[in-house]
Design brief:
single chain; alpha+beta; Beta-Lactamase; 9-stranded antiparallel β-sheet; 5-stranded antiparallel β-sheet; 20% strand; elongated
Length: 537
Amino acid sequence: MSSSQNPRASTATQASTATTASVVKKLKGFRPRFFMLMVLFIAVSAITVGVLGWRLTLAAAKDNIEELIKELEDLISNQVLTFVLEEAERLSELVQLQADHFRTGKWTVSSPDRANETMSNMLTLLKHYRGTTMDIFYFTYPAGLIFGYIYSQNKTLQKWTQQDMTIYTWNCDEIGNVVDLFDTFTVPSGGTPQTAGNNNTLDYAPGGSANANLDYSNNTATAVTTIHTGEHELFKTTLAVAKNPYTNEKVIVGADWTVAFLSTQLDEINAAVPYPLFIGLIESSTGHIVAASPKTEVTSSDGALITIEESKNAFFHDFTNYVFELSPGPHNVSTKLIQLGRHLDTDYIGSKNLYAKRTVGGSEWMLQTNTITYAGQITIQAIYMKISSFEEKVQTTSSKTGFSMIGIILGFLILGVLFSVTITRQLDLVARQINLLKNLKFNEVLDKDSGVKGRSFVFELAKLQEAFHEMVTVFAKTLKMSQSLQRGTQLYRGGATSGALTGGGSTSLQQLPGVGTNSNNHIQSGNYVNPASRDKA
């Protein structure tokens, strides 16, 4: 059965159509309150601006994470570079002072008394430079006998002397006086730089194990060794040749810089950075580990230096792979590092650094590679920073910012609602007053003294009220004048009619409204008069 044949279906359709039309009519006739419009506008604006700004900030932070890491690594690299160069310069300054004292004849070891005086002056210099080095010494040429002072690992002062191939270490008081013998160390010399033993002249000569390659024929020559071990410590030694012009004695002066001191400084830098960080310093000429933070093994169980290729540290292992990836070929790691050091020192000098993303321990890290060049030696910096830690930090900060933004938006909405309520009330006040005036209730709107009751504090609305006040005042005066005129006209008309009836005027009764031709109807001063009685009179 079709709907046209079903009266119930037809009725339902008509009712639905009528309901829809009624709803549409109501919607068309709907007029939202000003308060609702203001609150809606403020809410949409606050939420849109807040959320959009928050998301854009988060997106920008995520996009710039890698650049942020690079900039931070640059700061760390520059800090390490500055520290190493400043301390190296200070150590060089100490050695140069020693050499100058010998070259000007102030220091000499030509006699036991002058040798003791020289040693006493050396101790004074050591105390002054205690923050940079832990020892000061000289050795004779060509015998290679060493004399000097050293602060041991437990901070006590000790003295070095040497006789033949035996080095004596003495415990001393604070002014350098010998207290007792601490240790002796004897290593015979084979007479060549490769078998120098305790002959320091051979050890620091070209081809010696210290890799100083010092030119003894040059009386102003200087040199810096590679990393070497001694008494369970790692050292880099700065040396200078000096000749006394008065005694013609030639000595080699020097001081050591301990790797432990450098590692401590790296740990301080690492502790100041709130993200996972690894800093490694590597000698490019040997591949030996100079220092690292966090600390890692730099020597084998027998005290020998280890290279990054031999290290069990995950970061040094990854850096070894990285070096071979940069320069594929059959060469060993030392050759690769020399090539990398020269490449960085030539092509990436200054503010340029080499960056690479690396995976270490299942996490992604940003590697920055740079060089420190001093006295012809290149030390490679390898700095790793964990990328995911920055992303986690950004996400955490974003969450905090999001909650803060919600609070700000709510606060803004509350203020907006209060503002909307205030303005709406002022508009409602004006609307109610206009409505009262429309109903001619002037006493409820106008005040004899102030003019308008309930004046708005909003300037524009107050001006609108003043305009209505003036308009109503004029209207009231006009209305009053009109009423007065109407009363006067009525009185005038009433007086004229009375005079015509009583004074025998010429006005005809037929001219007054409501008065007919019936002679029985007469008016005199508002009283009824019988015509018959007037005729009798």
